[in-house]
Amino acid sequence: MTAKSVERDVAISELANHLERDLMPCPAGRTALLTWIEKSWLT
């Protein structure tokens, strides 16, 4: 794993935590969001 991918994973985790805590308390919403982020960032 490169430093850049680790950095990206940390940023995604922080974003997901922020959204989960502040905007999307629904677990299904968080799962959908993470799926969308993965598709958007990894393609």
Number of separate strands:
0
- Count of separate structural domains: 1
Largest beta sheet, briefly?
none
Report the mean per-residue pLDDT as an integer.
78
Helix content: over 70%
The total of helices stands at 2
Defining traits:
2 helices; mainly alpha; flat; 43 residues
Task: Characterize this entry briefly.
This protein has 43 residues and is mostly helical.
Helix-strand blueprint:
Blueprint: H1 3-23, H2 27-42
General description of the model:
The protein is mostly helical and 43 residues long. The chain has one domain (3-42). It is 86% helix and 0% strand. It contains two helices and no strands. α1 (3-23) runs antiparallel to α2. The longest helix has 21 residues, at 3-23. It is flat. 0% of the residues are buried. The mean pLDDT is 78.
